[in-house]
Amino acid sequence: MTTNDSTSTAIGRRSVLRLLGGAAVSGSALGTVAETTTAQTSETALDTWFENTSNYDGVVDQTGTSTVTVTVGADGNGGAYGFGPAAIRVDPGTTVVWKWTGDGGAHDVTAEDGSFASELVGDAGHTFEHTFDAEGVYKYVCSPHVSLGMKGAVVVGGSVTQSSTETAESETESSQGKAIDTWLENTSNYDTVTDQTGLQRVTIDVGSEANGGAFGFGPAAVRVSPGTTVIWKWTGKGGSHNVVETDGTFESQLTSESGHTFEHTFEEAGTYTYACTPHETVGMKGAVIVAEAGDGGSNAQVAEPFDDPKMEDFGGLALAGTFGAAIASPALFGVFLWLKEDETGGKTYPETKSE
Fold this sequence. Notes:
It comes from Haloferax profundi. It is found in: Membrane; Periplasm. The chain is an alpha/beta fold. It is built from seven helices and 21 strands. The chain has helices at residues 13-19, 21-24, 28-43, 46-49, 164-183, 315-328, 330-345; strands at residues 3-5, 9-10, 60-61, 67-76, 79-84, 87-90, 94-100, 110-111, 127-132, 136-141, 151-156, 194-195, 201-210, 213-218, 221-224, 228-234, 244-245, 261-266, 270-275, 285-290, 351-352. The strands form five sheets. The protein has a five-stranded mixed β-sheet with strand order 1-18-16-13-14, with no helix packed on it. A five-stranded mixed β-sheet has the order 3-6-11-10-8, with no helix packed on it. A five-stranded mixed β-sheet has the order 12-15-20-19-17, covered by helices on one side. A hairpin with a 2-residue loop joins strand 4 (67-76) and strand 5 (79-84). The two termini are 19 Å apart.
């Protein structure tokens, strides 16, 4: 981690390599990653799939039964527009029988991937069945009423609706949220965590209007990606302020100088709480939540800064992947040559000055 009061930060070669990350890994390694990601996504998307399905309340375990019945036209989604239960878990080889109630008009059962489909009928007692031989997650809808939330899913075998990793991340995020709410309970300008993920540098005002004067950090709480540099910039209002992390991870000097900056690079995921020592009791507190890097969303800009210029840190695979991607792209090939020239010729990289 790097921490500075009013200093500059150099952008090293690792920044460029991380920027190229999507194209740097090629061949079988990329294929393996893609296949694993696809498999995990197919098994863990049920909460999203059922986000507008009112009668979904988890996966009902029906394993150990050779035939399972699901009601079509069950009460749900503002009428008789549900499958009951909406999601079930069965063993491979199980036959699922959908049975119509006759309520809610005409319904059908159509798999999202086209692997099975019933006719569109409204007759009470009508049935349709399908045997699930292979493990996986099978999602389906009623075509006329999918927009209302009439959706279902069959989880076959050991497939799960949420991986242990996702569960841990969800629990961690929940606990982080509670911790932030408690920490900032007397901070008047806190109402939510401002999402700044995907940005290389994020600026927070020191001495913004809050807590009965110029006694706030603005915004009070931010979410950033690992590798992001947070810059605190003094407004010059409210007297002397400082930025002190509660566990001593970082600490600025105490000053009232307008335009003074202090920065810290957050390279590890976690929740970091801090305060202005002289004004902590009035609510001048802040928080930085560092989330694991994702796709960056619409805020994605340039790669995160790193000071270590050693290309060797990435190992042979990264170098080979970068070279392979460079062959396929003239632009990347130029960058690759630039990186190699620096390794032997001492090319100077531009500096990013503190604001």
